[in-house]
Amino acid sequence: MEHFFTRLEEIKEIKQTLAKRDWFLGTSGNLSIKVNDHPLLFLVTASGKDKTIHSSSDFLVVDENEQSIWDQTKNPSAEAILHKLIYKNSNAGCVLHVHTIANNLITQSFPTNKEVSFSGSEIIKALGLWEENAEISIPIIPNHAHIPTLGEAFLPHINGNHGAVLIHNHGITVWAETAFEAKKQLEAYEFLFQLTLQSKPTSLSV
Ligand SMILES: CSC[C@@H](O)[C@@H](O)C(=O)COP(=O)(O)O
Ligand SMILES: [Zn+2]
């Protein structure tokens, strides 16, 4: 139980920090953190809430079928299936999804089902790449309105315990083994998007 409350505090703190940055405009975004491996249980944001307002009912515990195990009065995030797929196919412990102007604009610059690559910035080290001239690539998938179809497009890109997928004209989903790492990586990606959009086009390649 101590483990549960520690995880809850971690994800609440991330929600508060990201809310201060206006990364949950229009009720967008969803966050989760794993609380048990077998059976899979994770805390995930309730669907459709104003995520800049914080209360004790912000998160639900859901199982591997994305069903709330205690509270039936609220629905889990509509995108809980993506979080579930990540937890079932990696050792990730935390998943963060945000819509920002920068991550939307980046997807508009490139075709879907391709990837966008970044290099030449020190912040790439925050993504775990320490070699000189390291390059990081992020896939861009179509924004299927049917969430199981979105899940099918997402699944092939879950290739490790940390990673990221851009959804066209929608947002980014980032995962990592810990909440600290997931937040750090999300911030590094958003830094790269903003840097690229505000720089000359030469730092961007497909
Ligand atoms: C209102 S934003 C669009 C939503 O459908 C979705 O993309 C989102 O990020 C938030 O959905 P939610 O069900 O609150 O987790
Ligand atoms: Zn979304």
Describe this structure in words.
It contains five helices and nine strands; from the N terminus they run H-E-E-E-H-E-H-E-E-H-E-E-H-E. It is of the alpha+beta class and 206 residues long. The protein has a single domain, classed as Class II aldolase/adducin N-terminal domain (L-fuculose-1-phosphate Aldolase), CATH 3.40.225. It has a nine-stranded mixed β-sheet with strand order 3-2-1-4-8-7-6-5-9, with helices on both faces. Strand 1 and strand 2 form a beta hairpin. Helix 3 packs across helix 5.
Order of helices and strands: HEEEHEHEEHEEHE
Query: What's the helix count?
Result: 5
Q: Determine the fraction of residues in helical runs and give it as a percent range.
A: 25-40%
Query: Remind me, CATH topology?
Result: L-fuculose-1-phosphate Aldolase
Domain count, please report it. Answer: 1
Characterize the largest beta sheet: strand count, sense, and whether it forms a barrel.
9 strands, mixed
CATH level 1 name: Alpha Beta
Mean pLDDT: 95
Q: Name every ligand kind in the structure.
A: 5-S-methyl-1-O-phosphono-5-thio-D-ribulose, zinc ion
* Unreliable stretches covering 5 or more consecutive residues: none
- Could you give the distance between the termini? 46 Å
User: What percentage of the residues does DSSP assign to strands (E)?
Assistant: 15-25%
Kindly provide the radius of gyration, computed on alpha-carbon positions and rounded to a whole number of angstroms: 16 Å
What is the CATH H-level superfamily?
Answer: Class II aldolase/adducin N-terminal domain
The order of strands across the largest sheet is 3-2-1-4-8-7-6-5-9
The dominant shape is globular
Q: Care to count the β-strands? A: 9
Structural class: alpha+beta
Enzyme class: lyase
Keywords: Amino-acid biosynthesis, Lyase, Metal-binding, Methionine biosynthesis, Zinc
Catalytic activity: 5-(methylsulfanyl)-D-ribulose 1-phosphate = 5-methylsulfanyl-2,3-dioxopentyl phosphate + H2O
Domain Class II aldolase/adducin N-terminal: 9-197
